[in-house]
Amino acid sequence: MLTESIIDSEWGNREPIQALKDYGVGIDTHSKFIAVCVLVKEGYNVIKYERDFPTSWKALKEARNWVVDVIRTKSVPTVLNIEPLHYSIESTGTYHLPVLKAFGGTPSVVNPLLASPSRRKTDKLDAKLLAYQNMTGLWPESFVISDKIQELRIIMRQRQFHQQMATSIANRINNYILRFGHTLGSIDSVTSIKSRALIEDMCDGHFIPSDYICPDGFPDEVKSVIKSMYADYDTHKEKAHEYTKQALKLAKAINWEIGKGRTISGKKLFAHFLTIPGIGEITTLIWLSQIVTPTRFKTAKQVAAYCGCDPSLKVSAGKVTAQTRRKGNQEIHYALVKCASALIQKHNEPLGQWGYGIYRRNLKGGWKKACSAVARRLAVAMFYVHKLGVDFSY
């Protein structure tokens, strides 16, 4: 067991970093097979066992049983507490997810760039390095979401896809009409009621005089293209709306875990989140689907870093050489920055006024700095509202 840090006057600060575990398991994943390496103690030696398995569900369960058998029968002294099984595995798109479901336990999901920085790269070497890292406790335990949260994420991903497709189609419509001298998109969106009505009238052969419409209209073939694009736009917007309703229904039906081992109904938690300035239902859905529970994080600073809102300093020789910002979770970061931007534009409440002050004081890059600062405060606010299960207050 690790002990607390001790300051020794002669030897300096003595602080245990990590405890050596009784065994280590490393898994290198691919689409067709997985390479598994198990390291066990045999007296003062560490013995390696390796084996490849196909990625069928039956084979993945056999792989888990083989790992447990190796640890139980080959360890000297015998390992008494194998469960929950701990192991390190590379995060490879979605190929590692069936392995997590079959193995269960407490995995450490590792970025491949961090897990295998060696020059030589083979499946066995990767699995061996992961097993060694698992045995030494290098990587922390990863948070594994439930099937219900996975369902919510898929629905949100589908909503995002259709929303992006609708935006892409709208941009293409504006691109096409500009080619023929129509600049309606400069004053309003081409999907607004007024602009869309004017464009569709031109596609039907009706010319309506306007300062932003060229008298030449559209060629016949282009008219049919634009009309079909508007139909596709409506389809994607309708799909996005349907997925939004499904996600809201699912999220409000879940009992969400909050601080101190308590749970709260999704309906009540939504009501608490909506008291935060600038936060709406979509941002709340994104937050819940990605954060899931505030108990994953020890401090608000960790949450801000996860959301890509916390600056990191590069220090060399005791001096700050650079300041960078981690990307973090892109979906949450984009949603929070969008909310922050709306608050600063209105600046009719304290948080928006504070951000507007930052924008006015920094002539160069002031808007970006203000949005980042307000987004960070929104992330901290959502964390405490989520953790405490209460309404927002300044």
What attributes characterize this protein structure?
single chain, 394 residues, alpha+beta, Nucleotidyltransferase, domain 5, 3 domains, five-stranded mixed sheet, two-stranded antiparallel ribbon, 13 helices, globular
Strand content: 15-25%
Strand order of the largest sheet: 5-4-3-6-7
Q: Outline the low-pLDDT stretches.
A: none
Order of SSEs: EEEEEHEHEHHHHHEEHHHEEHHH
How is this structure best summarized?
This protein is of the alpha+beta class and about 400 residues long.
Can you describe this structure?
The chain has 3 domains: 23-136, Nucleotidyltransferase, domain 5 (2-Layer Sandwich); 148-253; 256-388, no CATH class. Helix content is 50%, strand content 16%. The chain has helices at residues 57-74, 97-103, 112-115, 123-136, 147-178, 193-203, 220-253, 266-273, 281-291, 300-306, 330-346, 350-361, 366-388, and strands at residues 6-8, 12-14, 23-29, 33-42, 45-54, 86-90, 106-110, 255-257, 263-265, 311-316, 319-325. The strands form 4 sheets. A 5-stranded mixed sheet has the order 5-4-3-6-7. A two-stranded antiparallel sheet has the order 1-2. A two-stranded antiparallel ribbon has the order 8-9. Helix 11 packs across helix 12. It starts with 5 loop residues before the first strand and ends in a 6-residue tail after the last helix.
